[in-house]
Design a protein that fits this description.
This protein is 19% helix and 35% strand. By secondary structure, the protein is α/β, with parallel strands linked by helices. Helix 3 (76-86) runs parallel beside helix 4. The longest helix is centred in the middle third of the chain and has 16 residues, at 102-117.
């Protein structure tokens, strides 16, 4: 089942980013349910500590609600990812998880790594970026102008086909971002992950 997680930093309308009808389960993090319901999107689950200002009344929600303590180890979005995976969901899309505070954006990219280690595929989506993490071979269609392939968690070795730069067995490290600003130039790009884990970012200016 595909799961949509709506985080709190929404700069665009939800329906401009994804089609909610394509998802079998929708989770809202914290106060994001307010915008969701304004757009006629009704979550199946709302999770959060509800400590954002201004405070909103969540008591009228008819869906399942998990209220978290304000002091906790997990971010609200990370908890949503953990909850989705615990319910057997393996294909997760996250919107509202980029922009705003840089620490939250980096934390959400780390959460993609967590999801991958748990056997799920999670993707961060905003107007200009599509971000995912993989340790397996993948095929990508061109959704944005640029494609960047960056190592996370140590050294990675990858081969890339179907792009402007298509190296074979190139070594990527966390201290040298050589994989930035490639471009898909064929119908499909093939990313062969020979060793390690990489973050894949399709982006527009």
């Amino acid at each position: 089942m595909k799961c949509l997680i709506i985080a709190t930093h929404l700069e665009d309308k939800i329906r401009d980013l994804v089609n909610p009808d394509n998802y079998g389960f929708i989770i809202c993090a914290d106060n994001s349910f307010v915008q969701a319901e304004q757009e006629g999107i009704h979550p199946d689950l709302v999770i959060g500590d509800f400590d954002h200002e201004p405070e909103v009344d969540y008591s009228s929600l008819t869906c399942e609600v998990i209220r978290l303590p304000a002091v906790k180890d997990d971010t609200d979005t990370h908890y949503c990812i953990k909850e989705a995976i615990s319910r057997g969901m393996k294909d997760l899309s996250i919107i509202g998880g980029t922009g705003g505070r840089l620490d939250h954006t980096l934390a959400n990219i780390q959460s993609l790594i967590f999801a991958r280690k748990k056997g799920a595929q999670a993707t961060l989506i905003d107007k200009n970026n599509i971000v995912t993490v993989t340790d397996k071979n993948v095929e990508l269609t061109k959704n944005k102008k640029y494609l960047s392939v960056l190592a996370v968690g140590g050294k990675a070795i990858v081969s890339i086909d179907g792009c402007k730069y298509s190296p074979e067995e190139i070594e990527l490290t966390e201290s040298f971002p050589v994989g930035v600003s490639n471009e898909i130039c064929s119908k499909m790009a093939h990313i062969h992950v020979i060793q390690g884990t990489v973050v894949l970012i399709q982006s527009d200016d």
